[in-house]
Amino acid sequence: MQFVDECQINVQGGNGGAGCVSFRREAMVERGGPDGGDGGTGGSVWIEAHHNVSSLLGYRDHPHRKAESGKHGSGKKKHGAGGKDFIAPVPIGTVVRSRDGEVLADLSNAGDRFLAAPGGQGGRGNARFLSNKRRAPAFAEQGEACEETWLKLELKLLADIALIGFPNAGKSTLISRISAAKPKIADYQFTTLVPNLGVVQTDDGFDFVVADIPGLIEGASEGRGLGHQFLRHVERARILVVLLDLAPYDETPPAHQLEVLLAELGAYRPDLLARPRLVVGSKADVAMFDLDDIDGPTFLISSVANQGLSPLVGAMADEVRKIRDQDEELPAEPVIHRPAPQDISIERNDDGSWSVIGRKAERAVALSDLTSWEALSWAQGRLTKLGVDKKLARAGVKIGDTVHIGDMSFEYEADQL
């Protein structure tokens, strides 16, 4: 299958470059000061909705995406170059979720972006730590290392009209007759396992997109018969065309088919029932039933015999025109989604020790030489400004407990930070 609407992606931002420890060494210059340059910031991984991408196929077998790392700083205050961002294109309508299922971003318009993996910050060189108290700082910051993250991508098709019906109701045959789509067609249930898109053009040049949704059965809203995978493609459709099989193999009356389909749509998302819909009786050339029990306007068609298709296409076009007239004329501006900034938190480990979680706290101790008294003093002052000491006290940390911050571990003392 060339259509993939669900996959996982592994993303990792580029590591930041390390700051440099260097001192000015030139002839005729006595006691040259620190001149270590900063490391470059690592590149970020962005997931971007693109109109030229129609499937998530490219991520199914090759899920790993990593941005370029920043370069290290060097002497003479030469800063390292930043890493290049990596853009991962996805189809319009892609939803980004965490591995726990939380929705992180909905990329519903072309150009919408999600910052999937921010690049690591570059470390500051020792020239940045020069002060009246530290005339010759012999330490610098390390570059921030980025961890891998797994995300889940789900595609919800964008279409003007969704064809809905029981398996083998004639949806694929219909879309093959009214558009250039060439779906698989056979006389058994669940012939269609992935959605098919087709562009329908009327005689006056008006065109719209129709989605052939795989067959729904009773219990689809609860996931039966891959119901959730199929129903999510209905969410973005503006108009619903419900196909009722007039010659069902199990002799289910059309009225009962309509009742089941509407019940499943309402159970999945109640707002789907409020959308405009057309009721169509399919396979009129071999019909066992009629549509007398169906309230409201209906259409009778036979896709095989090319019967009744023109009135149906005209009605579909009229409904699409109405919906588009209600839309805003100005295109939606691309939206940039960024993860919420992570605050500093304290967590208790299974062995009784404590961990300080948060990028700012971890950056405060990411120094090249924590055995240096100057470096340790600076780190302690930075942690105090961040309020880590107060958070540890409120969390219940006792004197003598082991506390981990990044790669640094120490025994807690009340006045240590």
What does this structure look like?
The protein is α/β, with parallel strands linked by helices. 18% of the residues lie in helices and 23% in strands. The strands form 4 sheets. The chain has a 6-stranded mixed β-sheet with strand order 10-11-9-12-13-14, with helices on both faces. Strands 3-1-8-5-6 form a 5-stranded mixed β-sheet. Strands 4-2-7-15 form a 4-stranded mixed β-sheet, with no helix packed on it.
What's the SSE blueprint?
Elements: E1 6-12, E2 45-50, H1 57-60, E3 64-66, E4 86-91, E5 94-98, E6 103-107, E7 113-117, E8 149-155, E9 161-165, H2 171-178, E10 196-201, E11 207-212, H3 227-231, E12 239-245, H4 254-268, E13 277-282, E14 298-300, H5 309-326, E15 336-337, E16 345-348, E17 354-357, H6 359-364, H7 373-385, H8 388-395, E18 402-405, E19 408-411
Parallel strand pairs: 1-3, 2-4, 7-15, 9-11, 9-12, 12-13, 13-14, 17-18
Antiparallel strand pairs: 1-8, 2-7, 5-6, 5-8, 10-11, 16-17, 18-19
TL;DR of this structure?
This protein has helices spanning 57-60, 171-178, 227-231, 254-268, 309-326, 359-364, 373-385, 388-395; strands spanning 6-12, 45-50, 64-66, 86-91, 94-98, 103-107, 113-117, 149-155, 161-165, 196-201, 207-212, 239-245, 277-282, 298-300, 336-337, 345-348, 354-357, 402-405, 408-411. With 417 residues, the protein is an alpha/beta fold.
- H and E string: EEHEEEEEEEHEEHEHEEHEEEHHHEE
How many helix segments?
8
Backbone shape? elongated
Please state the average pLDDT score. 86
Global Rg: 31 Å
User: How far apart are the first and last residues' alpha carbons, in Å?
Assistant: 59 Å
β-strand number:
19
Model regions low in confidence, pLDDT < 50 over at least 5 residues: 185-191
Structural class: alpha/beta
Q: How is the main sheet built?
A: 6 strands, mixed
Strand content: 15-25%
Helix content: 10-25%
Strand order of the largest sheet: 10-11-9-12-13-14
